[in-house]
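Can anyone check this?
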Amino acid sequence: MGGFYFRRQRGFTLLEMLVVLGILGIVLGIGFLNGGLIARRQERTSFVTSVKQLFWRGATLAASRGGTYKLEYDGQKLEIIPASGGSPQYSIKVPAGVSLSLQTGEIVDFTAPGRVVFVNLPNDCAGTGSFTLSADGKTYCYRLSLIGEVEVTSQ
């Protein structure tokens, strides 16, 4: 009986390798796009907390150094600067997709012993000493106390 002799094939063919590489490329492309969206969303969420901490830092800075500092907003970043001039002590950049109800310029003064003086706050969500921040379709109300404490509520 004569039959065909089949050899056992080892490894993958070129076509099989190309299919696997194509599928891998598609999966990595989807992951890359979603990863960027997740990173930007996380940056905006982190900013919500950073703004709260910035007021506490300003009050603490004024109390510990016995000076006067001011919080300024230029539409792109929030900075704590010595009232007498000089370089910023703290600065946070406003991420894309975040809007604040603050006007540009000086927002508050931090004076010793850790007191917050409202200079240019819109008072738009919870009365005196309040402003709003919008990010990812959510609006947050920041209500400031005279000693640098901040209460944040979601609206």
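Reply from J.R.: I decoded it. Helices lie at 14-65.
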